[in-house]
Each structure stands twice: as C-alpha cells, then as structure tokens.
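Supplementary Methods S3. Input chains for the assembly prediction are listed below.
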Amino acid sequence: MSTERIRKIINNKELNRENLSYLIGLEGEERDYFLKSVGEEYVKSLGKKVFFRGLVEFSNYCTKDCYYCGIRKSNSHSERYDIDDKAIIDAAKFAHEHKYGSLVLQSGERSDKAFTERITSLLKKIKEVTKGELGITISLGEQSEETYKEWFAAGAHRYLLRIESSNRDLYYKIHPEDEKHNFEARINCLRSLQKHGYQTGTGVMIGLPFQNYDDLADDLLFFKELNVDMVGMGPFIEHTETPLYDFKDELWPIQRRFEVALNMIATLRLLMPDINIAAATALQAIDPMGREKALRYGANVIMPNITPTANRKDYTLYENKPCTDEGADDCSNCLSIRVEMAGREIGYSEWGDSKHFFKRTGKD
Ligand code: 5AD
Ligand code: FES
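Predicted structure tokens for the full assembly:
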C-alpha cells in the first residue's frame, strides 16, 4: 500500500482538482487509510460533537419533475399526503422536548401563495411554542427573494437547497430543460439565500448516471467557490418509477456509490474544515451503519426522521428508505446509541450552527 501521496495531500493541503479527484476515487486499503486519517484529524481540531436536526417531511406534493425523484409530479403512483399544521407543530414540540436543538421542515416544491403563507405562519407558531429555542432549517426548494425574506423574518435561519450536480450538462441530464428546472436560477437562489442572512446549505447526489470523479471534484470546488455553510450529499439510489431508472445498468454498483459518498464527505472535510456536513439518510438505505460511518469520517450533523409514522412510507424519494416504519421515539433512542458507537457526542439542545457562517459574515 502506498500512503505517501495521501499523507502529502493532507499535510500540505494540496487540494487542487486533480488531487480531489484522486481522493474521491480511492479504493481498498488506501481508501481506509485516507478515511481514518481525516476522521482522526477532524476530531482533534473540531471535537466530537454531532448535532441533531429533527426532520419533518410534511408533504410530498411537488410541482417539479426531476428525473431521479420518486415524488416527482408525473409519478402517478405516488400516494400524496400533506400533514396538518397541528401534527407538524407536535413534531416540533417532540424535537424540542427531546433536546434536538433544531428542526428541518422539508416537502415537495410548491410556490403558490397558499403554501408560502402557510409556511410563514407555521414558522411563527413553531418559534412561539418552543419559546424561540428550537432552531429551524427549511428545505423547500426554489422560491422568490420575497418569500425567502419573509420566511427568514418568520424564524427560519438555515436553508438547504441542493444543486444536485454543479455540472450544467449533467444537471440537464437529470432534470427537464425548462423554466421550472433552470440551472442558473438555482444558483441564483443559493446566492439570494446567502444575501438574506440564511446559513446556506447545498449538496449533490453521488453516483448519478454520466457522472465521474472529476465531476465530483468540481462539485466540491463549487461548494468552496460559493462559500456555503453546510453540505448534505448522499448516494444516488435509482427509483423504479422515474426516468433515470432506464440507466440502471450504467450505474456504479450500489456499494461503490456508498464508498464514494464517504470519500466525498472526507475530502470535503479537508477542503472546508469548518462547515456543517450532514450524514445523509440515503447512506443508511445502503448500509445500516451508513450514517454512523459518515460521522466517523467528517460529517457532524444527523437528521433523525420525526415525520409522523403513517406518512413516512410515502416520502419515497428513493426506494428502500430506512426507518419508514419506526416511531420518532424509537429513532431517538436508537440514534443516540449509534452516535456514541461512532465515538461521537451529541450536542443536546444546541443549534449547532455552522462555524463557517460566522466567519463568512464576520459575526464571530
Ligand atoms: N436518490 C438519492 N437521493 C435523492 N434525492 C432525491 N431523489 C433521490 C434519489 N433517487 C435527494 C435530492 C434532494 C434530496 C431531498 O433528496 O438530492 O435534494
Ligand atoms: Fe420535487 Fe424535484 S421532483 S423538487
């Protein structure tokens, strides 16, 4: 095994495109050495803390038609649901009582007035019932600047909007090319979120058809260039009722997608040491200990699913989604044990904000 090149890249922070691509593609013993080195170094510099965000996937109605996603508008087999406000508020109370620190509200994408106004009032109510103590992240897609401003004023302070792929050509292979799925518009949304004060997160899928290690290296450089505060990225998992399923035979084996996803997390941790990196749920769909492995090698945020159980099975962005039949209580117990097994500590009741955000904005 030759570890010299890896050691040199880590020690000298030689993180050019070629080296990033090399790290992302590592296999076997060299890969093990790389992941372990990043994990050890990271804990030394940033500590063992991991933060919980209770995830509520409150509706799977979606006006968009991404080619990879199981809840896309054209999937007539998707059983649609929309959880009522009371159940969402109850989930927020659950997160607060269980000292999760923060909540993530996610749904399919809608931008009609009834939806945006509903979110504004929900955000205010959640802040009220949790005495302002629960941090709120939202992940509600592309919206107007006005809407972003309104939701920030109502209490959301972090926003997740994955770019899905920073390669424009690849972007249009996984989305229709129309005004509802516009690459530049998506980047503008990310800029607008930063401008309006959000801690801003993005991310990509790993192992998409037509994607290679260089594309993934460019994704990491894109995160750095855009100066984001948070990243969530996970393996692509093909869904039978989506157009990308046609390319299933061209994909890397699922296990390789998982490995490369961990390589991406560790490589990003080297490149952006002070951002928040989430251990994506899709990792757990492949390996029961997938998220815990991500925590070992650079991730510091985990999002326990606290969506009321009856609806969980219908938020199927991809198939084999984990924990769709467990209650939130089960998830909470099971997770704290898992995090400790990964050698990390839970930052109970802390917002766990991105350190990078405070540096970027001078609010340190
Ligand atoms: N496989 C993996 N991740 C997916 N997502 C959507 N569909 C899939 C899939 N088939 C991810 C997207 C989206 C996030 C909410 O879920 O990256 O931004
Ligand atoms: Fe719903 Fe892409 S299919 S946002």
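The chain has one domain: 4-361. The first helix runs from residue 4 to 12.
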